[in-house]
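User: Hi! I'm working on a homework problem where we have to compare a predicted structure to a textbook description. Could you give me the structure for the chain below?
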Amino acid sequence: MRTTHAMRATRRIATLGACALLGLCAAVTGASAAATTASAATTRTTAVATNKAAAATTASAATALAPVNPAIDADGYLRIAAEAAQHRAARRLTEDAFIAMSREPGTVILDARSREKFDELHVRGAVHLAFPDITAESLARVLPDRNARILIYCNNNFANAPGPFPTKLASAALNLSTYVALYTYGYRNVWELGPFLDARATRIEFASAGAAASATR
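Assistant: Happy to help. Predicted structure tokens:
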């Protein structure tokens, strides 16, 4: 009888030991998993820090590779553009005024669009100097008299002619860039066609390189 009790006691002890061992194993496994998660998080944090450091290094390198260019003056451009904007405010012409001025002796009509668009259609009598080609030398050749009256117009003056006059964003209208450029180079007698006119109905006369070529044959 005592042997049976002893055997049962032994089995209970063994069972308790096994449970304790299983609990210890689970605890060790959980601790190991937690450690693995913490390690992964540390790795991700390190990777993020490394990426940030790399980005900062790249930005620093880019800055280091961009020294001040004495041939580009952003502050000067903004200052002169503000002056030109004030000067331009009272020099925007109606359709009638533009036509009247264009007929007066000594007046020059300047078209600063591309050569392709100019050849396709332009205001009759206009001279061409594409905006990207405006320099002191080209202006001296095309507009030698800085005091001469200069009339300008651009894509955003004429509707319903998307081929020769594709409309730009209002803030990127070529008249603005052209006016500022002329002002910067010392031209003050500049006048701009103001309204947005229907190219099919305006009384301003047009010409094209094709028509001129046909007329000379």
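For your comparison, note the following. The first helix runs from residue 2 to 64. The beta strands are 92-93, 108-111, 122-123, 127-128, 150-153, 158-159, 190-193, 197-198, 206-207. Good luck with the assignment!
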